[in-house]
Amino acid sequence: MPELPEVEALKDFLTEHLVGLRIVRVLPVAINVLKTYDPPVTAVEDRVVTAVHRYGKFLDLRTDGGPHLVTHLARAGWLHWKDRLPDGPPRPGKGPLALRVALETGAGFDLTEAGTQKRLAVYVVRQPQEVAGVARLGPDPLAEDFDEARFAELLKGERRQLKGALRDQGLIAGVGNAYSDEILHAARMSPFKPTSSLTPDEVRGLYGALRTTLTEAVERSRGVAAGRLKAEKKSGLRVHGRTGEPCPVCGDTIREVSFSDSSLQYCPTCQTGGRPLADRRMSRLLK
Predict the structure, then answer these.
(1) What is the secondary structure of 121-189 as a DSSP string?
(2) Which of 48, 57, 189, 280 is 20 to 30 A removed from 255 (C-alpha atoms)?
(3) What is the pTM of this model?
(4) How much is the pLDDT for 171?
(5) SS3 231
């Protein structure tokens, strides 16, 4: 799933390549990709893109005097920029193409989604906050005013595990499965550690890991072409998606805990005092 660093890089890429150009056509291809109908998708056509913003994992294209085109790429969605779009309208079918945006120059981009769980979402709204997912977002962890005191205040009163808290978009915007693993590894904390057990020093360490991990990921992604961002993300991850590989910090074997539709990765030596966490799915299979 594209998370804050990748969406931030896409925002920068589109700001450079899209702002100042006129949208000629918006062509929905996949069924149900459009989640709003008023204003209609045609309301952004024949309008110039004036700015591109990011809200958590949402991309927002602002048009001149018109509505916003807001996109959430979900788990398997992606944006493909094309200096020259194919001639003729795209054909609806079973392929990954979900929506095409054509510009006056002949350039444009495709939104695609792999797999069978079609969750990519596009909204045409008068204001981004009309999108429920945007309206419920917590603070952006890279915002200038997101300091340690504000982070500590957010965690105060929480009664859940750190992994879940970091991924809650209503608590902190933009962190998903991959970067929550990376943040907890950098902070040397178990993903199952209760938020209520954190000491002030641990809150300080977690805050530092959060800011450093995301900042470094954004810097790695800055200037990378949209088509190479996925590979850049994977190359920069230290534990997520690296089950069975040696931890780059201590050399211990990276372990995994599997759930019904996702998994987390961690280093026992760095994060859990050398103790492997119970993999609940494997435990059920072995019964």
Answers:
(1) EEEEESSGGGSHHHHT----TTSTT--HHHHHHHHTT--SBHHHHHH-TTTSSS--HHHHHHHHHHHT-
(2) 57
(3) 0.92
(4) 97
(5) helix
